[in-house]
Amino acid sequence: MNYPNGKKHSATNKEHHLVKKQSFSNRGMTLEEDINVTNQVLHQQNKCVVHKKPTPVQIVKVDYPKRSAAVIKEAYFKQASTTDYNGVYRGRYIDFEAKETKNKTAFPLTNFHAHQIEHMREVVAHGGISFVIIRFQPHNRTFFLPAMKLFAYWERQYKGGRKSIPYQDIVEHGIEMPTGYPVIVNYLSVIDQLFFRMEE
Amino acid sequence: MNYPNGKKHSATNKEHHLVKKQSFSNRGMTLEEDINVTNQVLHQQNKCVVHKKPTPVQIVKVDYPKRSAAVIKEAYFKQASTTDYNGVYRGRYIDFEAKETKNKTAFPLTNFHAHQIEHMREVVAHGGISFVIIRFQPHNRTFFLPAMKLFAYWERQYKGGRKSIPYQDIVEHGIEMPTGYPVIVNYLSVIDQLFFRMEE
C-alpha cells in the first residue's frame, strides 16, 4: 500500500524490535512529512480539512519570460507570524504547530517564536483548539501538548525559569500521540478525547 | 488617523459626491488591500483571528551566502489549493476568498478554480463558515455571498448554464457588505446576521 504522496511504507529491520505502537514513527520520515501524509489521509477519509500553510516568502524580483511561466528570481524567507497548520474539525477551528528535537532530556522553547505563542493565545481566546505536536527523536515518541500547557512553560522562562520543557514534564502533561497506519500521527483522536468527550 | 499598515486615510474629492455608505471603498485600494487592513483592525480590536495565507511558491534553487540571509534564486508560483483567508471567529472556523471584477453585468466564474470550490464544499460539510467577497468595481459595491449560493451557480455551468453570475443575482442573493472606517469590509457583521442571529 502506498501513501497518498506515492511513498511506499517500508519497515526497516530496526522497527521489528520496537513495540507495535511505535513502529510507524521510525521510518526515517520527518515529523513534518508524517503530518503532511496524515493530513492527506484524514482528508481522503473526510475526517477533517487541515492544510499546511505555504512557507511565507518575500518576493523581490520576478521575470516574465515570453510563452512561459513567471520565474521568481529573488526572494527571501520570512518568519511565519502564525502556526503552520490550521483547519476545521467537527465544526471547530483547529490550529497547531509541529516541532521535533534531537534533545533527549528537554524540549527547547527556542523552537517557538513569541508571535506564534501570541497567535496560539488568541486562537484559544476566540474558542479555537490550539496545540503543539512535539517529537523527541531520540526516544522515538511524539506528544500532543495543549497550547494552554505550553503557555505556562513559555511564561516561566521570563520569570527566571528554564528555557526548555523537561522531557518528563511532557510525558506527564502531554498525551502520547497514537501512531499507526495509514493515519500516522492521529491528533484527531486526542482532540476527541480532550475536547469532545463530554459531548458524546 | 493611520491604518495599521501606515497608510493614511485620505478622502478624495470624488468621494464627497458619494453616499456615506460607499465612501470607504473608493480610495483606489484593491479589495485585497481593503481586506488586509480590515483583518489587521479586527485583530487589533480582538474581534477575530483571520490571516491571509502566504502565496504558495515552489522553491527550486536557494543560495546560502556567508553571513547573510538565504536567497531564493529560482521559484515558481503554484496554484492555491485552498482559499486565501481563514481563521476563527466566535469559536467557529471561517474561510473565504475575495475577488473583484471590472465587469458591470456579471461575475465570471473563471475567478475560481475547481479545487477552491471543492475546498469550500468540504469546509461547509465540516461545519465551517465559508463565503466569498465579491466586488464589482464599476458599481463600487462589495457583496458577501455564502458559499452555498456560489455552489449552485458553479454546478449550473456544467449543465449548460452560463459561466458567470449575473450582477442582479448577486444584488438579490448576496448581502451588500457594510463598509466604513476603520473596519473597511465588515464581513463579521454579515456573519453575525447569517450565522449567529438565532443564538442571540
From TrEMBL, chains A, B:
Cellular component terms per the entry's GO annotation: cytoplasm
Binding of Mg(2+), residues: 82, 84, 97, 116
Site (Transition state stabilizer): 99
Cofactor binding description: Binds 1 Mg(2+) ion per subunit.
Origin: domain of life: Bacteria
Parts forming coiled coils: none
Essential cofactor(s): Mg(2+)
Catalytic activity, EC: 3.1.21.10
Keywords (A to Z) from UniProt: Cytoplasm, DNA damage, DNA recombination, DNA repair, Endonuclease, Hydrolase, Magnesium, Metal-binding, Nuclease
Alphabetical GO biological process terms: chromosome segregation; DNA recombination; DNA repair
Claim: Hydrolase is one of the keywords in the record: yes
Protein's UniProt keywords contain DNA repair: yes
Catalytic activity: Endonucleolytic cleavage at a junction such as a reciprocal single-stranded crossover between two homologous DNA duplexes (Holliday junction)
Compartment annotation: Cytoplasm
Cited Gene3D superfamilies: 3.40.1350.10
Example GO molecular function: crossover junction DNA endonuclease activity
Main location: cytoplasm
InterPro entries in the cross-refs: Resolv_RecU (IPR004612), Restrct_endonuc-II-like (IPR011335), tRNA_endonuc-like_dom_sf (IPR011856)
Function according to Swiss-Prot or TrEMBL: Endonuclease that resolves Holliday junction intermediates in genetic recombination. Cleaves mobile four-strand junctions by introducing symmetrical nicks in paired strands. Promotes annealing of linear ssDNA with homologous dsDNA. Required for DNA repair, homologous recombination and chromosome segregation.
NCBIfam families tied to this protein: PRK02234.1-2, PRK02234.1-5, recU
Family according to the record: Belongs to the RecU family.
The protein's name: Holliday junction resolvase RecU
Taxonomic source organism: Streptohalobacillus salinus
Gene: recU
